[in-house]
Task: inverse folding
């Protein structure tokens, strides 16, 4: 097969994309694989979820037929959905769990697979969306400096744990006594590992502690858990500040990476923010497991080692991947919506706080309440109440002077 034949061209609302000719998925699935390279094959959406989607899509098709869906189209969708439910098309679902938080892209992955398979059943051309459309038929009826400091602190916390993580228990044998090893063995092994890896590994000063407890891993996991908490807060703030465009805060303009809804045309979701918050939740869960594991060092040996290291490594991988994805696909493209910011700022009733030193809290509060009740500006309310002049208001209420101590 030539390189030209290896792909077909499909379109979503953002433009055209190359789709592998031997796959039933379409453009939106491809776009998601481009935007969410997080965790690799092991982090793909569980096949149980995909198969459940097959059952749901079959049920929807049968009900939609009762409401007027073309029986021929319904029959083809049912057959394709059955194949999904039976696990026959698992190779056509490449998306990872870490995507839009609503799972919209996996829903569209299922829609595209069932649509194209149904098109094939009916003798059509893959990617044509005719006579079976993935949405119309298959889915029918269904504050930045503070953020920088948070991340800096998070990285510093992780780095501060590493000296204890680099301590090796090798040479402690079964319970930490070093029985049957040669004098100097532990130190030389640690030095050799350090030489081979380029990392500052050392022998643990107390092998009993190193074997019976894994507090260093709990500490490292805790530091990553703190980073996850920071990322959850940051991603949610950015998501809310970017809400809109017609309603919501709308103070930030977020990059538009892919279509956001299989139901509402033109909708765009803060998908990178959603992926960050899901990863953060997973890391928090991993830390709970690591904490339980660390507490189960009975006498001279901890017996939760495999689970602990699995979760620590998983947290490190997910945090690293999602931070790169979030940076490349969202943070670097964020723009301030200055017109919206200025509008909200100038209409904010809280600007009245600047008047407290000049006219007192009670009068300032009355100005705010009057402006709110009558739907006027603070300035208009202040002048109407006779508390100050227009020039005084302009002199005392300056948002740029309210950014810090004066």
Result:
């Amino acid at each position: 097969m030539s390189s030209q034949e290896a792909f077909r061209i499909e379109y979503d609302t953002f433009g055209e994309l190359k789709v592998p000719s031997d796959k039933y998925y379409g453009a939106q699935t491809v776009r998601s694989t481009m935007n969410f390279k997080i965790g690799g094959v092991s982090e793909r959406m569980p096949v149980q979820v995909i198969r459940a989607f097959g059952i749901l899509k079959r049920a929807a098709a049968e009900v939609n037929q009762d409401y007027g869906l073309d029986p021929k189209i319904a029959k083809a969708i049912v057959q394709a959905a059955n194949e999904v439910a039976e696990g026959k098309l698992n190779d056509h679902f490449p998306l990872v769990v870490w995507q839009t938080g609503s799972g919209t892209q996996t829903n569209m992955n299922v829609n595209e697979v069932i649509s194209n398979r149904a098109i094939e059943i009916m003798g059509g051309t893959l990617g044509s969306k005719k006579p079976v459309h993935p949405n119309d038929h298959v889915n029918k009826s269904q504050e930045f400096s503070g953020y920088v400091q948070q991340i800096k602190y998070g990285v510093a916390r992780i780095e501060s744990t590493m000296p204890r993580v680099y301590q090796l228990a090798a040479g402690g044998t079964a319970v930490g006594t070093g029985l049957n090893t040669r004098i100097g063995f532990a130190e030389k092994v640690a030095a050799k590992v350090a030489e081979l890896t380029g990392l500052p590994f050392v022998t643990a000063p107390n092998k009993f502690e190193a074997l019976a407890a894994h507090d260093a891993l709990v500490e490292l996991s805790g530091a990553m858990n703190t980073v996850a908490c920071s990322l959850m807060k940051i991603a949610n703030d950015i998501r809310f500040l970017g809400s809109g465009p017609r309603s919501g805060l709308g103070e930030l303009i977020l990059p538009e990476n892919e279509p956001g809804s299989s139901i509402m045309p033109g909708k765009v979701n803060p998908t990178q923010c959603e992926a960050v918050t899901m990863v953060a939740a997973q890391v928090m869960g991993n830390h709970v497991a690591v904490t339980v594991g660390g507490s189960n060092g009975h006498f001279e040996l901890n017996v939760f080692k495999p689970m602990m290291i699995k979760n620590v490594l998983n947290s490190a991988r997910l945090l690293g991947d999602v931070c790169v994805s979030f940076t490349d696909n969202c943070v670097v493209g964020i723009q301030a919506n200055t017109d919206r910011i200025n509008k909200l700022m100038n209409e904010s009733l809280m600007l009245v706080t600047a008047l407290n030193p000049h006219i007192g809290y009670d009068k300032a509060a009355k100005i705010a309440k009057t402006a709110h009740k009558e739907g006027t500006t603070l300035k208009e309310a202040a002048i109407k109440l006779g508390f100050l002049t227009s020039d005084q208001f302009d002199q005392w209420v300056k948002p740029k002077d309210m950014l810090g101590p004066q």
Observations:
- The two ends are 72 Å apart (CA to CA).
- The mean pLDDT is 92.
